[in-house]
Amino acid sequence: MFLYNVTIGIDKEIELEWIKWIKEQHIPKIMDTGFFLESKLYKVVSQEDEGSVSYCIQLFSDKIEKIVEYLDKHTHTIIDEHRQKFKDRHVVFNTLLEEI
């Protein structure tokens, strides 16, 4: 099993708007691509500063090739939509993990 983990630091001022949009629009669009078997959303509780809060979107796939194909085909649509909507109000860190 492979995990594509996206950690996002979001400005606290727009946190509730971001959560609603992520749950209702962003994650469903990702799952509709068919490249992932399951998704989860977590709030990072170990690190928080005054101006931002972090969340992790975890996307699970049975093949690394599916994740690579998702990134190749959807970077300019789904991912860029997030970048444009929350421009200058977030930072993103991506990690690809393999279960052992």
Summarize this structure as a short list of keywords or feature phrases.
100 residues, four-stranded antiparallel sheet, Alpha-Beta Plaits
What does the model show?
The chain has helices at 15-32, 64-85; strands spanning 2-11, 38-43, 52-61, 90-98. It has a single domain (2-98), classed as Alpha-Beta Plaits. Strand 2 (38-43) and strand 3 form a beta hairpin. The radius of gyration is 13 Å and the shape is globular. The chain has a four-stranded antiparallel β-sheet, with helices on one face. It has two helices and four strands, in the order βαββαβ. By secondary structure, the chain is of the alpha+beta class.
CATH class type: Alpha Beta
Alpha plus pi helix count: 2
List the uncertain runs. none
CATH topology descriptor: Alpha-Beta Plaits
Strand order of the largest sheet: 2-3-1-4
End-to-end separation: 8 Å
Helix content: 40-55%
**Mean pLDDT across residues:** 91
Described by the principal axes of the CA atoms, the overall outline is globular
Order of helices and strands: EHEEHE
Any idea what the CATH architecture is?
A: 2-Layer Sandwich
Query: How much of the sequence is in beta strands?
Result: 35-45%
How can the largest sheet be summarized?
4 strands, antiparallel
Tell how many strands the DSSP assignment holds.
4
Write down the Rg: 13 Å
